[in-house]
């Protein structure tokens, strides 16, 4: 990053310093417009690198932090993308002493591939807008996902404009560097986002073995395949899964709810939208494509001796896989599993076998629900049920409000930050 910033600054100053130092009308606007264009191009390449699934980036940062950075950077790209043509139009209008409207028309018709660049701006601005919370809440996942796939088209259109008309690309050393940077980043996206899932599908031939209803709204899908003992993942991870059947082709993120066993993969899915409601109707034998494993919500090496697992709702899926992995090496595990009702407690029978101490907590308890904790997981409940919690590695997964409360409670009870593990999947 630092080297790229130095190269960008040197190339921009080489071509734009005369515009800044001279008194020519509009010169500084043009120089700043070029800088904005370079920053947009660099930010877009960084965005692509963040979501390219580079194997040495994601495990060290964690998917949640990576995507938060990607999202924040996206809100920077949008304004810069608009500032670039505005500054250039105002600058050239002042230089040639014409109206801003006339200058914009001249740029749109006279500069190479500018119309394609305008189309790219529209696509990118719409994609950024689709991630704004007030809009995102009303969009189906597939629509939001499609808007982001359109970004690849936008990047291609903008690259044609840059390669053919940008002043700095005409500088020999910078032109070669800029092209090589694009090829490297785009190559990583092609290899790791598209090539690797297809390679794994060809190698393992994932297919649906069975579909099991775990509760009224949670379904487990068992996947079989060839040589599954060679498919490497860690308990707590997830994959983006696309089922090769009508209506379920768009990849969605689902956690593995069973630890690696070499015989099958299991993902467990809560019905919260049109896509997930169709899961229960999947046909055994249909193929699936997996992008992953992904995520850093995993056990450390070497594995500690004592653990606290706190799960809420469908957050039990990665927690259940972690507990199974720990049971195999005889670790001391305490589970606090919170749900709305007793019927919403998924894998209850399995968890009682795997964990030495299970505490099931329901927020809407009936009079007949004896033997279950009632209420919500908070500081008082943690202290009462897990008196030695400061000696344990704590893993937390569930709805964002529940995670915030539990993580805050653990910190308030002086559990070391290094012992609190979570990944925000929401």
What can you see in these coordinates?
- By secondary structure, the protein is an alpha/beta fold.
- The protein has three domains: 2-191; 205-294, Translation factors (Elongation Factor Tu (Ef-tu), domain 3, Beta Barrel), CATH 2.40.30; 306-422, 3-Layer(aba) Sandwich (Rossmann fold), CATH 3.40.50.80.
- The chain is 51% helix and 16% strand.
- It contains 14 helices and twelve strands.
- The protein has helices spanning 2-21, 27-50, 58-61, 63-96, 100-110, 114-130, 133-136, 141-165, 172-204, 274-278, 316-327, 348-354, 379-385, 400-412, and strands spanning 207-213, 218-224, 238-243, 252-255, 265-270, 288-294, 306-312, 332-339, 357-362, 373-374, 393-397, 420-422.
- A six-stranded parallel sheet has the order 10-9-8-7-11-12, with helices on both faces. A three-stranded antiparallel sheet has the order 1-2-5, with no helix packed on it.
- Helix 4 (63-96) crosses helix 5.
- It is elongated and about 85 Å long.
- The two termini are 29 Å apart.
- The mean pLDDT is 86.
Provide a compact summary of the structure.
It contains 14 helices and 12 strands. It has helices at 2-21, 27-50, 58-61, 63-96, 100-110, 114-130, 133-136, 141-165, 172-204, 274-278, 316-327, 348-354, 379-385, 400-412; strands at residues 207-213, 218-224, 238-243, 252-255, 265-270, 288-294, 306-312, 332-339, 357-362, 373-374, 393-397, 420-422. Helix 2 (27-50) packs antiparallel against helix 4 and helix 4 (63-96) packs across helix 5.
